[in-house]
Design brief:
This protein has about 625 residues and is of the alpha/beta class. It is about 30% helix and about 20% strand. The protein contains 18 helices and 29 strands. The longest helix has 27 residues. The termini are far apart.
Length: about 625
């Protein structure tokens, strides 16, 4: 019995040692943390007042000295640590790795405002649904009230927009200023920024960072160099976004005019992503630099869906704080609302919420953007009479460019096919059977091609096997019903590209996220074109993308234009920069044009569109008397 008891004690001792080692290892694990510092506590100076007064050099000097003092104090408590990053301007912080035990020792220091883990985010790319989409209109800016006459008054000159994104190419032809534009930021300003950053990175020099007068700052904040497209991605997300904001006028296919929203604005290209991922420290530093350079707007297309203010502010206080701080000193942070609008999730009496707005777009001070469909496409089309209809191609099933006879074949189900389809193109409604079975029946009775139209709103994709060989294309439900009403008739199918109407014009994009947030915050704030937007790609040329990421730069460009207009209006000459920034958001929301639901002829819910679609003519002519 004694031996048994002794064995039991020995086993307990071994387990105790093993468990203690596990706990010890867990406590020894290092976490990348952000320690935000209250520099007013250390210096005795009211830094926030200095910021709002625009005394940026004083702020930098106070924060730099205070961070050095804070670092020494932390060193005394936890020993030497390797500093990973810091910001000495808008949100003074020090980033380093620390264990839970070390965090516990420093969290109650008087000057420590908060300690949090560095939060990871992903770039908000295209909607998470695959669709065959035609290329977009060359002038989506018209949807927000910008035409040639408008640009003669306001074109963004004197304004700066920071673009925090991924994969840019500043050498593209659209990135240039008109010869008569005096840039707001010069190389001398970049020298001041370099000095302000105090050798934080050996590669952050004016020669590496400054690209030209159009793009005075081009920098990769993670890799710490000037290579803005290390992944060599042709269809760069950041490139597309930047050109929408500030691309200069050009011709596409020597035929269609194209331009960005504020073509004479300056752009800060700030790559804060590696493989479409980022974390807080990188874009906090980018936001701080953009504010230091007095950007009117900062464009951000990143986030996590279904954000809540409560959890966002708990987990990522520094991001919430720097967005609020940027806004408080006159820089509007414009953020994509996200692309999960078609997500339904677990909606029930117990879980009624289906708001999907992404964080950090849920931050109240930010301008959060939803997407509306573009009015027109540059696309291939078929025509009958005076009508032109966009069609969606199926790989290796293209029609010759010529005129065909077409007849209506309903859903082309077994036993329902007309007897006179031989030698003609069949118009078929989607549904009731597979695409392959429908096309096989029609090919067997002599049809020379098939046009399938959707049975719901929007576009669709067709995947065909090798059981059939005749050409097949797809069209929208609305266009199919129009064509059906004219059958039997003749159609001409063209392989040329031309401006044609988007069947979903004037409708909210199905991917665009809904508010409210789970906390009851009304988001989004504004809507802009984001469905089928044509813009620059890396290298040369243009590409179409869709998403709230494409709507957001329209609003960032709009912020720059309203800022320019306010500077030129006599009644606002004495307006402080901070108050001008707040007024811009108010103007854009109050002048927005509410969107009507075309099916029901009632306004689209503000939970979907916010205040409405941006209207630049109204925004710049709003009467304040």
């Amino acid at each position: 019995m004694k031996k048994l008891f002794s064995g039991f004690l020995a086993l307990c001792l071994v387990l105790s040692i093993f468990t203690t080692n596990l706990i010890s290892k867990a406590e020894d694990k290092g976490y990348k943390i952000i320690v935000t510092i209250n520099t007013t506590k250390i210096s005795g100076k009211n830094v926030d007042t200095l910021l709002k007064n625009g005394e940026y050099e004083k702020v930098k000097e106070i924060n730099s000295n205070s961070l050095n003092i804070a670092k020494e104090k932390i060193n005394e408590i936890i020993g030497d640590f390797k500093e990973l990053s810091r910001d000495e301007f808008l949100l003074p912080f020090i980033s380093f790795e620390a264990t839970k035990a070390q965090i516990a020792k420093i969290k109650d220091l008087e000057f420590v405002k908060s300690i949090e883990q560095d939060t990871e985010y992903e770039v908000n790319l295209k909607p998470n649904i695959a669709k065959p989409t035609p290329r977009s209109a060359a002038h989506a800016t018209k949807l927000i009230g910008i035409d040639d006459d408008f640009l003669k008054k306001y074109d963004g000159r004197g304004e700066v927009v920071g673009v925090i994104d991924t994969n840019f190419d500043p050498t593209h032809e659209v990135f240039k200023l008109d010869k008569d534009v005096n840039p707001s930021i010069t190389k001398e300003d970049i020298k001041k920024l370099v000095k302000h950053k105090n050798g934080e990175s050996k590669n952050f020099t004016e020669d590496n960072v400054y690209f030209n007068s159009k793009i005075p700052l081009a920098y990769h904040y993670i890799n710490e160099n000037s290579n803005l497209n290390p992944e060599k991605i042709e269809e760069g997300h950041g490139q597309h976004v930047a050109a929408v904001i500030g691309g200069s006028q050009t011709k596409i296919k020597n035929k269609y005019d194209w331009r960005g929203v504020a073509p004479n604005s300056q752009l800060l290209m700030m790559n804060c992503f590696v493989n479409e991922g980022t974390s807080s420290t990188y874009y906090i530093k980018a936001i701080s630099d953009a504010v230091y350079l007095r950007a009117a707007a900062i464009n951000m297309s990143l986030g996590k869906p279904k954000g809540t203010v409560r959890t966002h502010n708990e987990k990522d206080k520094s991001v919430a704080e720097i967005i609020d701080k940027a806004t408080s000193v006159g820089t509007n942070v414009v953020i994509a609302g996200g692309n999960e609008g078609e997500y339904q999730g677990d909606i029930s009496i117990d879980h009624p919420d289906f708001g999907t707005i992404a964080s950090p777009g849920i931050q109240q001070s930010a301008i959060t953007v939803a997407s509306v469909e573009n009015n027109e496409y540059i696309a291939k089309y078929l025509s009958f009479g005076n009508e032109k209809i966009v069609y969606y191609e199926v790989k290796d099933r293209t029609f010759e460019s010529k005129t065909f006879d077409i007849i209506d074949c309903g859903e082309a189900l077994e036993g329902s096919i007309p007897s006179n389809v031989n030698g003609k193109v069949a118009l078929v409604k989607r549904g009731g059977d597979t695409f392959n079975n429908k096309i096989k029946r029609l090919e067997d009775v002599g049809a020379i091609g098939v046009i399938i139209y959707n049975n719901v709103l929007g576009s669709f994709s067709m995947s065909l096997d090798n059981s059939t060989t005749i050409p097949a294309i797809g069209i929208s439900m609305e266009d199919g019903e129009k064509l059906k009403a004219k059958t039997p008739t003749q159609i001409t199918i063209s392989d040329e590209e031309e401006l044609v109407k988007n069947p979903l014009e004037g409708r909210m994009s199905s991917f665009s996220n809904w508010g409210l947030t789970s906390d009851g915050i009304l988001k989004p704030d504004l809507t802009a074109p984001g469905g089928h937007i044509y813009s620059a790609k890396n290298g040369s040329g243009f590409v179409e993308m869709s998403g709230t990421s494409m709507a957001t730069p329209h609003v960032s460009g709009a912020v720059a234009l309203v800022s320019q207009s306010l500077k030129e209006r006599a009644e606002f000459k004495n307006l402080s920069v901070a108050n001008r920034g707040k007024l811009i958001k108010t103007i854009l929301m109050n002048s927005a044009k509410p969107l009507n639901d075309k099916e029901n002829n009632v306004p689209v819910s503000p939970r979907y569109q916010g205040a409405g679609v941006v209207d630049m003519k109204s925004a710049t002519e709003l009467d304040f008397t």
